[in-house]
Amino acid sequence: MPPYWFPVDGKPVVLFLDELNRARPEILQTIMDLALNRRLAGRALPEGSRVIAAVNEGDQYQLTDLDPALVSRFNIVQFVPTAQEWLLWARGTGVDTRVTDFIQENAIWLDKNPDAREGADTGLEKTPDRRGWKRVSDIISGCKKLTDVHYKAICSIVGPKAANAFRQSVSSHKLVSGRQVLYELDKHRNTLSKYRIHELSVVNEGIFRYLETEMIPQEDKAAVSTNLESYFEMLTKTTKEAAAHFGNLYVSSNLYPNACRFISSDCPMLTMSLIMYVKAIK
After folding, report:
1. Cα 45 from chain centroid?
2. Between 221-238 and 178-192, two packed helices, what is the crossing angle to 10 degrees?
3. Neighbours of 57 (CB within 10 A)
4. Number of separate helices (H) and strands (E) present in the chain
5. What is the pLDDT of residues 8-63, one digit of tens each?
6. 96 in Cβ contact with 166 (< 8 Å)
7. CA distance 38 to 21
8. Is the pTM of the predicted complex or chain greater than 0.90?
């Protein structure tokens, strides 16, 4: 019998087979005809349908080896989302800012314990991952002050080393956010002037990420544009490397199309300054 979800209205679908290499061998046999001929249980998918599968790889997973004949039916693409892409997703889904601020400044803790030996068998040792940081956010969201109970729970989710680094981040100084630069630059100008290159780079990313995920109200666009132009001018006068990083985010990054569109359409003076600055570097 065809599965309950099989399309019957004739409209093409994208059929996504998640965790394909966790299936039992007899299940994988049914995928042969599905992947090659778009047929399952003697019934064809609607014309124009596509089949996409996702798999895990690595010795740490319990997986079923895929038959070379099955692998040959697919185009293989290695999918490795960056920390910045995760941060964009996290901001768009409301992940607690303490988590996103920590990962923004310490991206090495997003997916693993940076002190762990490469290829080591960790067994049940907890190490950080993207799903874990989302769970951390769910636990602390709405809690202004984190207690020892919170941190014990965080230890059980991302491991003690990552939890300790996160605790230190929360209790220490917090970098000026992208939103604060865009809306309150004068208030934070003195603080920004004391930042080092790597800190300003984090602020730059925060600005572009905010513009990418948030809509600037029409009544605020003029003030935001003025602050953004003033901020870049400050970088060019004080920290040229950070200014170059800002310019690179604008001219060569495909990660922030909405942010670049805002700058191009609402910050004409900044756009000219960025293009001239980057050309001068080249």
Report:
1. 33
2. 40
3. 9
4. 13, 4
5. 899 999 999 999 888 888 888 888 888 888 988 888 999 999 999 998 876 666 67
6. no
7. 19
8. no
